[in-house]
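Re-run with default settings, no changes from the original entry. Doing this only to confirm the output is reproducible before filing.
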Amino acid sequence: MTRGKHRNHAYVIVPDAHEIEAHLDQPEPLTVTDRLAKVLARTDADLSATETLTLEVDRHASLSTLLAEYDVLAREAQADRWASLLDVAPFPDDVTDNLFTSPYYERLQAALARHEAAGHHAAVALTALAPRLTPGEDQADPAAQLATMLDQATQQLRPGQRTRARVAGLIPTPAEPIADDMRVALAQRQELIETAARRLLQDAEDAGAAWVARLGPPSSRPERRERWEAHAATVALYRYRYDITGPAPLGDPNAVRGPDHAAEYRGGRFALRHIKASVRHDDDRGPQPTDRSAPRRGL
């Protein structure tokens, strides 16, 4: 690229993703700038042992990597349970086998997890929805059909009483039973994710970010300050996860795409409501004395 006297041209050959995996939904295409950035980020140079170690440490410390690993582990932790529930659900004839071989099976697993995370029984939903599937070559993929039906049911029902704990208030934890080694792996990543979320909040506070100012000031009382920070860290993690850079704490609601994003947006709104409620509570109490033990002075 340094030899052109008047101009240089670089070409990138990009295969058609639909030709490779035509049966799968394709991600948004990369822009020219995105593709150039990926090319420039690659190198064929051999790394030293120190450079390799540093790169590996950075990879494991990356919040994006931790989030992706948690998502995969949480799905794998419940894979057998989903299979057992689907195996006994009252599907029409010749549907069950097509579910397990469907390219949309992971989407179905995610829909089951979202339904349970909202406090509902997946077994109850499958009993009600499974008979409604319409088998046949001209019909939609049964796993995709069922995933859509589950998501619609999750949105229409009020949150149940069995809502599960969430990582940093945002990402649902998988339901028990979970194998011991899987539980340890999930717990390790949960701790790192929540520490990173607090760090995101601290960085935003230090930078005087507009979105933090919109939350209102935390209470001077330690326990209320702790709750404010926990909910604000949820907002910080949501912003990181969905690349939100504007002053609105949760960004533009019209930009929410897909059921996973929608579920986590609701988690962010829940955190935001608690922050606002705590700020209003402190405002209603008015200014409080800082030291009740100080002696009074005469006039």
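The CA atoms of residues 15 and 21 lie 11 Å apart. The chain has a mean pLDDT of 81.
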